[in-house]
């Protein structure tokens, strides 16, 4: 599936948003990876305990698959990811964490999504100071020998920024945003180390 491609899938999430409150959220025609992103967003806005019923429908065939999941957010995301792969046949690109845990000889940058590659570039290359979407695109193209439109880099940076709730700070305005990694966060330091290891292994494989 190409990024942004319309699908036939409809996802319905039924969950408790608070004591005695049941909510239903539906998203239509998005790829399974985007459905996973939206599920993570719902989790971030939902009070524990977490209890979700998820229905995935394929409008082209009329087939439905349902799934009920409880637990902590990390476990639920992992279980939903497996459910999406099983119910839709979609294969998720490996994350930076999964790549770092793999044997370096088995790492293939072709198996990574463009977004994962951009994340790795940012963590490994911009530990100090601010950077722009143009900076990211230039290093991406130099590293992977692939074109990355500045608009795509901007979209990925906005996703990583996530209204200030993720690992990036954003400065400036629409005419020219710049970003900074929140290197003071321990989890960012961990992601930097993983990204550097994975990027070094990939560069060896492609002869950089």
Could you walk me through the main structural features you see in this protein, from its secondary elements to its overall organization?
The protein has two domains: 9-88, 2-Layer Sandwich (ERH-like fold); 96-205, Winged helix-like DNA-binding domain superfamily/Winged helix DNA-binding domain (Arc Repressor Mutant, subunit A), CATH 1.10.10. The chain contains seven helices and six strands, in the order ββαββαααααββα. The protein has helices at residues 32-44, 73-88, 96-101, 114-125, 133-144, 150-161, 186-205; strands spanning 9-18, 21-28, 51-58, 63-70, 168-171, 178-181. It has a four-stranded antiparallel sheet, covered by helices on one side. A two-stranded antiparallel sheet has the order 5-6. Helix 5 (133-144) packs across helix 6 (150-161). The two termini are 29 Å apart.
Number of domains: 2
What does the largest sheet look like? 4 strands, antiparallel
> Into which percentage range does the β-strand content fall?
15-25%
The CATH topology of the largest domain is Arc Repressor Mutant, subunit A
């Amino acid at each position: 599936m190409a990024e942004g491609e319309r699908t036939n899938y409809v996802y319905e999430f039924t969950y408790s948003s608070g004591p005695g409150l049941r909510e239903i959220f539906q998203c239509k025609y998005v790829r399974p990876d985007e459905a996973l992103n939206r599920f993570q967003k719902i989790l971030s806005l939902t009070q524990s305990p977490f209890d979700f019923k998820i229905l995935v429908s394929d409008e082209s065939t009329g087939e439905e698959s349902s799934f009920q999941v409880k637990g902590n957010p990390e476990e639920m995301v992992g279980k939903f990811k497996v459910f999406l792969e099983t119910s839709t046949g979609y294969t998720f690109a490996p994350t930076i964490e999964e790549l770092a845990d793999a044997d370096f000889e088995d790492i293939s940058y072709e198996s990574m999504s463009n977004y994962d590659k951009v994340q790795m570039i940012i963590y490994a290359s911009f530990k100090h100071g601010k950077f722009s979407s143009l900076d990211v695109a230039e290093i991406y193209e130099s590293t992977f020998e692939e074109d990355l439109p500045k608009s795509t880099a901007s979209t990925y940076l906005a996703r990583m920024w996530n209204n200030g709730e993720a690992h990036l700070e954003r400065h400036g305005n629409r005419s020219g945003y710049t970003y900074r990694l929140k290197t003071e966060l321990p989890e960012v330091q961990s992601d930097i180390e993983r990204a550097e290891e994975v990027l070094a292994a990939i560069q060896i494989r492609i002869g950089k």
